[in-house]
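Task 17 of the worksheet. Students: predict the tertiary structure of the chain below and write it out as structure tokens. Keep your answer in the requested format; marks are given for formatting as well as content.
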Amino acid sequence: MQSSGVSVLKYKWASLIVTGVLTGAAGTCLPLCGISMFTENMSAGKGFLAVSAARIGKGDPLKSSLACLIFAFADALSVGLQGFSIPSQLVLTAPYIITVLVMCLTNLGELRKESV
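Model answer:
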């Protein structure tokens, strides 16, 4: 794009600023919507899931959205499974285990493409 006269540096800075504003809005929504107070670790690792979804998507919004849906389903599943006689510590790790598995599977697919 730089060869066509578009300033790549300006787009990088603009995207960084927009990302910061949206991240800040999402972060303020968490304590202000619903419980109206801030507690330590209230995000409960959701940032890890978001970064993982962005990494899996590799700039493709559809892939990132699909990863977010998979992680949201895993999070909802962990909440739903707490009513059964499964230890809660094991159930609450489900979204993170699924995240690591999805990241490993997407990286294995890339390794296979590179070796062929």
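Marker's comment: The chain has a mean pLDDT of 80. DSSP finds five helices and no strands in the chain.
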